[in-house]
Design a protein that fits this description.
The complex is a heterodimer of chains A (466) and B (272).
Chain A: H1 3-16, H2 18-55, E1 61-65, H3 93-100, E2 105-111, E3 114-120, E4 123-132, E5 147-148, E6 158-162, H4 163-168, E7 171-174, E8 180-181, E9 191-194, H5 195-198, E10 202-210, E11 226-239, E12 253-256, H6 257-262, H7 271-275, E13 286-291, H8 294-306, E14 311-313, H9 316-357, H10 359-367, H11 372-412, H12 428-454, H13 458-463
Parallel strand pairs in A: 4-12, 6-11, 7-9
Antiparallel strand pairs in A: 1-13, 1-14, 2-13, 3-4, 3-10, 5-11, 6-12, 7-8, 10-11
Helix pairs in contact in A: 1-2, 1-11, 2-9, 2-11, 2-12, 9-12, 11-12
Chain B: H1 9-19, H2 23-29, H3 32-49, E1 51-64, E2 67-80, E3 84-88, H4 95-103, E4 110-115, E5 118-119, H5 125-135, E6 136-139, H6 151-162, H7 166-179, H8 195-207, E7 213-217, H9 225-240, E8 244-249, H10 252-258, E9 261-266, E10 269-271
Parallel strand pairs in B: 3-8, 3-9, 6-7, 7-8
Antiparallel strand pairs in B: 1-2, 1-4, 4-5, 9-10
Helix pairs in contact in B: 6-7, 6-8, 7-8, 8-9
Classes of the chains: A alpha+beta (466), B alpha/beta (272).
């Protein structure tokens, strides 16, 4: 038998029982669409998170912190090294120079965080400032600000402010073309203002300094020890508020490196830092290092491990994260799979019914000289065609449903300020895999009916009136 | 004369003619070295040329619970090429079982069925399928056509399994339908045809692979007397074109009218 004959026979037979074929197809379609919707959700989740990290160069960077003070969330293997060692390398400018001289390092700079109060207009708010060297202006996300531009020089009295900070100060910021950049928690008391008009506005940075280093001064109250100093700065740019916005995650006011160094402060930004023993010679609490590539990050880590320098890199968690995603994908896949298996039983049912109805026809085919193999192939092809059609319609329906779900989720739950998020991802392997899987399931489902059909006794079959 | 130069069609035919006479062995006995070869060739030739079908002690026993039904009881007979043989028997006499055995739709319990000298009684189901496809055409009382398909599609069915190309299928099926006088009904669905027409489609289907032998199981059983005549005419015409025909019927009159030889079957026993 030619394949074209098998296809044509299958087509004719399926069309002849079109209602039943259609109902069986619905079953397969539901199975496949459930499978791909589930898996594409898992894959989409993984993609959104890892791409966000990648876009912000988080997979090529790490943060060096002092041994005495651990960055929260550091890799467990590096958590037990609170012991101070005499030969530990201090976090100072010479370490930065050493790192910057390395071939695998793209940029290294100290992280200076200062607790401040910010006065903008009539409002004030407490926050922590961060700092950046001039070179970071070429890297994500600072090369693509919502409005304005990067600092003009290393000691300019300029700041970048984040959108979420502006929101918390009561500004509803509108971009060009009246695009709203609003964060969650927006209320009607907010002042609507265009992003461009905020550029050039002055803010006052109120930082805390020690009046005296004598602890005795505390007797007269805390205000005898601490004093607030005001520094006026100009807003030059607005930062997008992404959840994983690069090395300055959750820093809402960022200033040039030298400006930050000169900002009057008590020299610590957290109580824990004040309490911890400071390593002798440490100038900085943390140093941010960006490697040139992910491979370079590996060699950099090896170097730091060898020197016994404490660091935290997000890509350490990546493999763990991948395992979690694999489990998530598997669970979602299994749920989808169950509906596909149910659809497979639907195919078995349909084919068995069809054999009963076509028993006489099978007898005729055998009487005129069809081999058992021919009969098997005829039924096998019918099951296979149901599989192919079911896979195609399942993918179409699954894709359509996820698009609709995506639109609904984006309109309902995402704030208008954030860029629309694609919750689902359809990599080529998912589409091809779903088609292949569906065909395999339908062929397995067709196997038993096909064998049964081929075993029909022609004499008995021909005795049947029809 | 060297034995191999004798090995031509004409010479063998001549030799065969002599072989049926007792003189033959004496004639060639002097050439003792060639004797065995000659006998072998002759036997094969005899088998291939005249005996289309030979049944040797064929039994078919069905078990129904504790009872055993002997449907074919030690049947031996031979059917020559080009013969029109009618097997007459009442309902339940075992005539259909015999036809099923000849068609390879059923397997004999014991005995041999030689088709052109080859024993087919132990064939596998695939070998039987091949045998039906290439060597025989079957016509049934109830036509056994696929109603939802056209006359042409029904006739083309065996050719699909034979692996013919689409154009060859169409050509052969049209020619077969023409032979039974149905070229004007090619695209009619079977359920739109009269009984006589349907049976003619079935004959066309049996003929389409150009088989040597036609097995007909009560081919006129469902037809009126006028269409019966038509169908019998077609079968006779096929006989004249060299086909071997075995027809099963309960109607002695029909058998008398068309058959060269009539075999009677009763309780599974076949007799002349």
């Amino acid at each position: 038998m030619h394949i074209s004959d098998l296809v044509q026979m299958a087509r004719q037979n399926l069309w002849r029982m079109r209602v039943r074929t259609f109902l069986t197809l619905i079953g397969v379609t539901v199975g496949i669409s459930a499978l791909i919707a589930m898996v594409s959700f898992g894959v989409g989740l993984e993609k959104n998170i890892t791409e966000n990290f990648k876009n912000n160069d988080l997979f090529t960077s790490l943060t060096i912190s002092s041994k005495a003070f651990q960055v929260k969330g550091g890799h467990p293997s590096k958590m037990n090294t609170n012991k101070e060692r005499a030969d530990a390398i201090p976090l100072n400018d010479s370490l930065i120079t050493l790192l910057q001289a390395r071939k695998d390092v793209s940029i290294a700079y100290p992280k200076i965080n200062t607790p401040v109060r910010i006065a903008l207009g009539t409002d004030t708010a407490a926050t922590t400032t961060g700092c950046l060297p001039m070179e970071m202006g070429q890297h994500a996300p600072y090369d693509n600000l919502l409005a304005g531009k990067y600092f003009s020089h290393d000691s300019a009295q300029e700041v970048l402010v984040s959108l979420s900070f502006l929101n918390s100060m009561g500004y509803n910021v509108i971009g060009t073309g009246h695009k709203q950049y609003a964060a969650a928690g927006m209320d009607s008391n907010m002042v609507t203002i265009s992003a461009d008009s905020l550029i050039g506005k002055k803010i006052t940075v109120l930082s805390t300094t020690l009046k005296t280093s004598s602890p005795l001064a505390l007797i007269g109250g805390i205000e005898n020890v601490l004093a607030e100093e005001a520094t006026e700065m100009t807003i030059v740019g607005i930062l997008p508020s992404e959840q994983f916005a690069g090395p300055n995650f959750r820093e809402e006011i960022i200033m040039p490196l030298k400006t930050a160094e000169q900002l009057p402060s008590v020299g610590f930004d957290r109580i824990s830092e004040m309490m911890a023993q400071k390593l002798k010679g440490n100038k900085y609490n943390a140093i941010f290092v960006k490697a040139k590539s992910m491979d370079d990050l590996k060699s950099l880590k090896a170097f730091l491990d060898e020197k016994d320098i404490n660091y935290f890199a997000i890509d350490d968690g990546l493999n763990e994260m991948k395992k979690v995603f694999l489990i998530l994908d598997s669970i979602l896949g299994v749920i989808g799979l169950i509906s596909l298996v149910v659809a497979g039983f639907g195919i078995v049912n349909t084919m068995l019914m069809s054999i009963l109805e076509r028993k006489r026809e099978i007898g005729i085919m055998k009487a005129v000289g069809s081999k058992n193999r021919d009969i098997r192939l005829i039924f096998f092809f019918e099951a296979g065609i149901i599989g192919v059609l079911g896979a195609l319609s399942g993918i179409a329906v699954g894709y359509g449903l996820t698009r609709i779900a995506n639109i609904i989720v984006n309109q309902t739950y995402m704030s208008s300020g954030s860029t629309p998020l694609d919750l689902f991802s359809f990599p080529w392997w998912l589409t091809l895999g779903a088609i292949a899987f569906c065909i395999i399931i339908s062929l397995i489902a067709g196997l038993y009916p096909a064998i049964r059909a081929s075993k029909i006794n022609p004499i008995e079959a021909l005795r049947q009136e029809g | 004369m060297a034995p191999f130069t004798l090995f031509t069609y004409k010479n063998i035919a001549l030799a065969y003619k002599n072989a049926v006479e007792p003189r033959v062995s004496a004639h060639y006995s002097c050439k003792s070295a060639n004797k065995t070869l000659w006998q072998t060739s002759l036997r094969t030739f005899v088998a291939q040329s005249k005996h289309m079908l030979q049944l040797i002690g064929v039994n078919k026993v069905y078990s129904k619970g504790k009872h055993q039904i002997i449907a074919s009881n030690n049947i031996s007979c031979s059917i020559q090429q080009g013969e029109f043989v009618a097997i007459v028997g009442k309902s339940g006499s075992g005539k259909s079982t015999l036809l099923h055995l000849l068609a390879g739709l059923d397997q004999a319990t014991s005995g041999q069925i030689l088709f052109r000298g080859t024993d087919i009684s132990r064939y596998s189901s695939n070998e039987f399928a091949d045998y039906r496809l290439k060597h025989i055409g079957i016509i049934f009382q109830s036509f056994n056509l696929i109603f939802s398909k056209s006359a042409l599609e029904n006739v083309m069915l065996p050719l699909i399994f034979a692996g013919d190309s689409k154009s060859s299928r169409l050509q052969k099926a049209k020619a077969a339908l023409e032979r039974v006088g149905l070229s004007h009904r090619l695209d009619h669905k079977v359920n739109e045809l009269s009984g006589g027409e349907a049976q003619r489609v079935a004959i066309a289907r049996a003929l389409v692979n150009n088989p040597e032998m036609i097995l007909a199981d009560e081919p006129t059983g469902n037809l009126d007397s006028k269409t019966t005549e038509e169908i019998l005419d077609i079968l006779l015409r096929l006989k004249h074109n060299g086909k071997t025909i075995i027809m099963i019927t309960h109607d002695q009159e029909i058998a008398d009218k068309v058959a060269d030889r009539i075999l009677t079957i009763k309780d599974g026993v076949l007799s002349e």
